[in-house]
Amino acid sequence: MTPRRRLVAAIVAAGVLASAVLVLRDPGPDPRNPSSGPVRLTNYAADYVKREPPSGPLLPPSTVWSSDGRVQWTPVPGAAGYEVFGRLVTSPEVAGTGMPDVRAVDASGQRSAPARARERAGDDGSWRQRVLGFLEDFDDPRVERRFHLSGRRGCVNASVGSGRLVVDTPCGEGTVVLRARSPLVLADADELGRVAVVTSAAGPHGRLVVDLVPGTPDLAGPVPPAGALRVVVDDSVAGTRGAGVPHRFEVVLTRGGVRVLQDGVEITRSAAVPTWRAASVLVGVTAPPGRPGRVEVDTIGISGAPQPIADVTETPIVAATLRVLEPEEEAPGIGVARTPLRNAPSARLRATVRLGDGGDVNGLVAQLGTARIPLRPVTEGWSAAQDAELTVAGDVPAELLGPGNDALSPFVLRMPGASQAQVLESYLEVPGRSEAKLPDAPEPPLPALPVMTAELIGVTPNEATLVVTLDGSATPSVAPVAGFEVYVDQQHAATVATPGGVGGRHELLISLKGGHDVEVRLRPEDPGRQTDSIWLELSRSSR
After folding, report:
1. How far apart are CA 297 and CA 138, in angstroms?
2. N or C: which end of the chain has fewer CB within 10 A?
3. Percent helix, strand, coil in the chain (nearest 5)?
4. d(CA 135, CA 196)
5. Distance between CA atoms of 284 and 266, rounded to whole angstroms?
């Protein structure tokens, strides 16, 4: 009963034979012709399919309030989602201002009566006074002056717009890590220090990670260095957060342990106490996996007295092979441009390596042309555990600075016993004020269809229950769904109409003997959208 998937493209009037077959299954105007308007379905069930009737009328949301750029309300029993600001969402909160009407929506698309939001006193901004040592509101696109950004090239795109850092993940997964160039220095007080992050990253299926690590590592990896403090906030932590909705998270270090606050309210605590006096602050934000996603970071603040930030300009350089080579292993003849070194009084090479299952880090070097630059960890207490991520650095020798050949070839990293060690990122740091700017943030993505899953449960020789779930929790706005169709052995067995649907769970009892192929086909309201189909094998011998 393992599901198989395919994308079914919406076919316009000039389509091929498959288009005609689909029209025959659903008589009437062609829903795939944009001129025919939104797709509308009619409930249908063959004589061997039984579906429970829709639930009764929904109650409207209660205690709806608006403040701090969010509208929130009490969840409604039986609701699959909500309609607010003309959008469909699945969590009981949404980003926005004003006093909108909110309606509950059930799995069949039925709406409740509206409930009007009321204004509630919001954040007075006093928390900002506690993090004035370093306070970034992303009003300046020259983010590199105050942060180093780490992320998978092409799959994590950072930009700036409307006073916030925007992280898009076109590959459907990805994390960006920001290392503040100003450290957290502990105070001699009951409250040792504080880090504040305002972000949407901790919403459904997303993740916020704050690492406090001695030294200047760019990544802390899955196994943080000894002595580091890691705080993880995701949808497993108590509380409901809507996709794309910003919240303020504060990590408060005290003599008695660590407290984590959300919007000023404690959500968890730990007895851990830092053993260091100063540490780098690494803020990692992860978009929901499985589809192109977006998260935003509005503010990052660090307590203490303002610390001087050295002016440096970064130039990414890509190794000829991302595999760390053995000391004398042949290297590809691919180098890097000398351009960033031509007028540099000095330069530093930094790299982050995933160690794999072995290797002598004391012998780690970067080969840049004919020179070999020793690389050393930038933090103490790093872990040599398998798959640990280690940031290293080394000074570029004077003979590589100034005029010379156009390229330095090869550029590789080497280490005795390298095994499966990999280069995650590498770049040059040159003294001087960076003028690099992040691009302007693109427009927000269109509403996304809910993710459909299907399974067969309760299989007996005579019947099985088909469970279809439409989950739109990972997207800030859900594209409405007309419903879904079920085919058994390529014959139309059922249509479940959900006009303006946001998602939800559906059960259909299929009373048939023997083995059968079952297909579930999602139908968006928008006839121009791609959709999804799932195939299941109903095998009586598998019960």
Report:
1. 8
2. C
3. 5, 45, 50
4. 9
5. 21
Residues 107/113/114/118 CA torsion (nearest 10 deg): -110
Average pLDDT, the chain: 89
Whole-number pLDDT of residue 34: 45
Identify the bridge partners of residue 389 per DSSP, sorted by sequence position.
Answer: 354
Question: Does a cis peptide bond (omega within 30 degrees of 0) precede residue 54?
Answer: no
Rg (CA), the chain: 28
The residue with greater pLDDT, 57 or 210, is 210
Q: Locate 68 and state its tokens.
A: 């701090």
CA 217 to chain centre: 22
Which distant-in-sequence residues (6+ apart) come within 8 Å of 317 by Cβ? Answer: 336, 411, 426, 427, 428
Q: What is the pLDDT of residues 69-94, one digit of tens each?
A: 999 999 999 999 999 999 999 999 99
Q: What is the mean pLDDT of residues 387-412?
A: 90
Residue for token digits 């939800």? 504
Of 243, 236, 228, 318, nearest to 282 (Cα)? 228
Residue 216: CB atoms within 10 A of its CB come to: 17
CA 44 to chain centre: 38
Measured distance CA(294)–CA(205) in Å, rounded: 12
Phi-psi region of 394 (alpha: psi -120 to 50; beta: other; left: phi over 0): beta
Tokens at 121, concatenated: 């006193």
Backbone angles phi and psi of 127, in degrees to 5: -60, -30
The alpha carbon torsion through 265, 444, 301, 128 (nearest 10 deg) reads: -60
Tokens 């609701």 sit at which residue? 79
Task: Extract the tokens encoding 284.
Answer: 């990692």
Angle at 170 between CA 169 and CA 174, to 5 degrees: 35
Burial class (CB in 10 A: 0-12, 13-18, 19+), 299: buried
Question: Looking at the predicted structure, is the pLDDT value of residue 411 above 70?
Answer: yes
pLDDT tens profile 291-319: 888 999 999 999 999 989 999 999 999 99
The confidence score (pLDDT) of residue 7 equals 34
Residue type at position 152: R
Q: Which domains does the chain have, with CATH numbers?
A: 4-55+445-542 (2.60.40.10), 62-119 (no CATH), 133-302 (2.60.120.200), 312-431 (2.60.120)
Nearest to 485 by CA among 449, 510, 518, 522: 522
The residues, ordered by sequence, that sit 6+ positions from 361 with a Cβ below 8 Å of its Cβ are 355, 377, 384, 390, 392, 415
